[in-house]
Amino acid sequence: MTERVPIAIVGASGYTGAELMRLCARHPGVAIAHVMAKRAAGQRVGDVFPHLAALDLPIDAFDADAVAARAKLAFAALPHGESAPIVAALRERGVIVLDLSADFRLRDPAAWSTWYGGHGATAGDAHPAGGLLASAVYGLPERHRAAVRGAQLVAVPGCYPTAAILAAAPLLAAGLVDPDGLIVDAKSGVSGAGRSPSQATHLPEAGEGIRPYKVGGTHRHTPEIEQELGLAAGRELRVLFTPHLVPMSRGILACVYARPSDASRPTEAYRAELARAYAGEPFVDVLAPGALPDTAHVRGSNRAQVTAVFDLRTGMVLAMSAIDNLVKGAAGQAVQCMNLVLGLPETTGLDQLAIFP
Question: Rounded to the nearest 5°, which phi and psi values hold at 219?
C-alpha cells in the first residue's frame, strides 16, 4: 500500500472519538497525526481511554492551522452546533472533513434551524455554516456511494437513521411498500447518549428497565430519517419514530412497519428485494428466511443485519435491522466513507469480526 495518509480526530474524548482512534490505529492506509479534544486537552489518550494507551498520543486543543499543517483529512466527532464552525475552518484550509455531528446531514437549512437551532417546533438560530450544506454528501455508502467517492465534506449519518434506512429504503425504492403510515420503532444501547454522565444513563436508573424517550415526533433524528426515506420513495413522507433506551452498552435494533403497496405480492418478495438491493454490499448481511437480526451478533463490527417479513394476518410488512451504534452507526461508517473518499478499498481497516458473547 502507498504511504499512509495523515489524519486528525477532533473531539477525541467521547465514545465516537475513541472508536475512531481504535479503528484508525490499525488501518493500513492512514496514520493518526493529531488528536484534539477541548475537555481533555493536555492529557494523553491513555489517560482518557486506558484501553487505547498503546497509541501513546497527546491530546491538544483544537487549532485549525495546526490540523491543516499536519493532516490531509479530519474527523469531527463533536456535538451539533459546535461542529459546524470547526468544519468550516478546516474546509477553508483545504482539509477534507468527515463530520459525525448532525450539522450537515439535513439538506434544508431551515430544517436544521427548526430541529437543531432552537427549541420546540419554532425555527431557532440560523445554520452556523449554511454555505457548506450544498457541498456536503450524506455518507451512507449503501445509498450514496458514488457521491461519497472523492467528496470533500461528508456528513456521516446518525445511528438511528442508519438502522432505519438500511431496513426500509430498498423496499420504498422498489415500490413494494406505501410511503404513508411508516412506523420506526428502535432500541439503542446507552452509549448512544454519549459519555457525559446524566441521571437517565446512571446504572441504577437505566440498568433494569427499558423506556421510550423523545416520543411524538420530537427526536432530532426524525427529519434525517424522513429525508433519506423520502429520497428512496421519490417523494416527501412522514414517519412515526419512537426510540427506546435499553440496558446495554452498544447496539441498535430497528423495526420499520409499513403497508404493502400490493397485498397479493408473495410473502418472500420483501426479503428477496433486500437481498437483491444489497447483493455484493461488503457490510450488509441479508439474513436467511426465518433468521432475525440480533445486536449481539454485530457488536464491535461494521456489519448490519437486515431482513423483512410479511404478516399475512395483519397485512403489514416488517423490515428489521441490527447495527452497532458506535461502529456502523458512527465511527465505522465514517471510516468506510473515508476509504471511498481516499480511493482505498472500501473494507480497509474494517474487517473486524463481531465480538460475542
Answer: -75, 135
The conformation of residue 206, written as its DSSP 8-state character, comes to H
Q: Respond yes or no: is residue 337 known to be catalytic.
A: no
Supply the DSSP string of 8-71, one letter for each residue. Answer: EEESTTSHHHHHHHHHHHT-TTEEEEEEE-TTTTTSBHHHH-GGGGGG--B-B---HHHHHHH-
Q: Give the helix/strand (H/E) hosting 337.
A: helix 332-342
Give pLDDT, residue 197. 74
Which candidate, 120, 162, 141, 96, places its Cα nearest to that of 329?
A: 162
> Using H for helix, E for strand and C for coil, what is the string for 292-318?
CCCHHHCCCCCCEEEEEEEECCCCEEE
Q: What is the CATH number of domain 160-325?
A: 3.30.360.10
Mean pLDDT of the 34-62 span: 95
Largest CA distance in the chain: 64
Give the mean model confidence (pLDDT) for residues 143-153: 97
Active-site residue, from 24, 159, 255, 337: 159
Q: Are 166 and 142 in contact (CB under 8 A)?
A: yes
Q: Which of 288, 286, 282, 297 is nearest to 344 (CA)?
A: 282
Q: Is the dihedral of CA 150, 155, 156, 162 positive or negative?
A: negative
State pTM to two decimals. Answer: 0.95
230-287 pLDDT per residue, tens: 999 999 999 999 999 999 999 999 999 999 999 999 999 999 999 999 999 999 999 9
- Spans of all domains in the chain: 5-135, 160-325
CATH number of 5-135: 3.40.50.720
Strand partners, 317: 258, 310
pLDDT of residue 196: 79
Predicted local distance difference test score (pLDDT) of residue 118: 65
C-alpha torsion sign, points 280, 306, 262, 182: negative
pLDDT digits over 196-212, tens only? 778 888 878 878 889 99
